[in-house]
Every structure is written in structure tokens, then in C-alpha cells.
Sequence to fold (295 residues):
Amino acid sequence: MYLIAEFLDQVRSEVDVTLDSLIPTENDEPKNLHSAIRWSVFAGGKRVRPAIVIAVGEVLGATRKRLLATAAAIEMVHTYSLIHDDLPSMDNDDLRRGKATCHRKYGEATAILAGDVLQTLAFKAIAEDGRLSYECRVRIISILATASGSPAGMAGGQQLDLDAEGRITTIEEVELIHRHKTGALISAAAASGATIADSSGRDVEAINEYASKLGLLFQITDDLLDVTQGTKELGKTAGKDISALKATYPAHFGIERTRELAVKIRDDAIAAIAPVEKNTEILKGLASFIVDRTN
Fold:
């Protein structure tokens, strides 16, 4: 576990430097908008999605320099989704990563614009990444656009989540929501790393299956944390899923069975990369980190 902790610390540091270079400063007009963007981006996230880009890419032979801009772009898309997810019209939350949410600090209109700008900056970062071929950039842009939108991405998943509030859902519906709302961007992170590494065949199939399991695992763990941790530990309002009658795994299975399921999916994710004839310890460590995380 020390290995994965050290890896995540390195990724966070390098991705933050890259993000800083890609995002307008607070001295650039309109200053309030750029301040709101930086407030949200540099609020202390774990950078799990960039870590997946870099871990997969490096395992498959890409250099970190070629992976960093895409990793930062995916973090920008993730942060934009959090800003919008917290809005009064969505989850209406006051806290994110232990700080006031963007709309609480800067107002709802500025928060919406901050999310909008982060999404456009993400695609700009990939489009202008001279370390990658034009063909590679187009493929990554397509991967990220699909994962961000609908029907197979975050926006579609958010709508499914909203539609499910306050009613009884099947476990199939819960999984569909999770795979779209959370899993799609995690799968895109892995696919982007593999694309930059110019990998194909059995390795890519194994990585895709691994990432699919990882995405589901991340959201199941989120569901568990919402009902087992306090607001201080989570850095966001605890118990929101229950109060909003959201579709979650603990609501269907209870806490203990959901914990057992999380361990099984972690093991399935690790088993999925068995065909990859390279050192995949960092990928296994990421799966274990996700299931063991406390916030």
C-alpha cells in the first residue's frame, strides 16, 4: 500500500503543476470566474482519474510526459461535473472536499460558468498537446466526449440518477446509473492511457474490463462512505443519498453485503488484468486503494 500511496502523491503533484499551467490565473479577467475555477480544481482532490490515465499508460509503455496533459484534462472534466452536481438544481450540496461548494462561495451563475469553462479547457488541452499525434488526440477527444455526455456518459447517468430519486429501483437500474455517472469517466481515463501507449489487442481488452470493474467499485465505495462516514471525514455532506432517496447499493443490500460485493469486484478487477504480461502491480494497488479509501 505504501507503493500506491507514493504513486498517488507523485501523480497529484505533477498533475497539479500541469493543471496550473492550463488554467487561467486569478489575475486574468474575468477574475471572479477564474478564481471560482481554481477554488474548485485545487480544493484537494485525490486525482484518482489522472492516476488511472498515468498508471495504465505507463504499464503499457507510454512516458509520463506524454500522459500528463490528458490526465489533467480528465481531472478538469471530473471537477466540472462535481461543480454542476453540487448545484441547487442537482444535489444542492454545501460542501465539497471539505470546503464550500463553488456555487455557495461564488454564486450559482458563476459556478455554472466555471463548470462550462473547465469542460472547454479540457478539450483544448488535448487538442493542443503537441506530444501526441493528431490521430491520437482525435481518438482521446472522442473517448472523453462519449464519457462526458449521453447516452453512455456522465450527463446521461446524472439524468438517470435524478429520474430514480424517490422511487424503488432494481439493482440493474442502480448499476446502470453507476456505470454511466461514475464508471464512464474512469473507463475513459484507462482507455486514454492505453491510446497514448498505442496499445491494442488482448491488453486493451483486459484494461477495458479492469476499468469497467474499477468504475463500478468506485461508486459502490462512495455509496458505502455516504452511510458509514461523517461529514468531516467525507469532506461533503454525509447521508445525502438516504435523505434524497437515491438509488444505491446499501439501500438494496445493506452495508455488510455491499462491503462484501465491493471486495468481490476489486478481486474481479485484479483478475481482469491477468492476461497483461507486464508489471501490473500499480493497477492492482489502485483497485485496493479504492476499496479501502475512507473519503
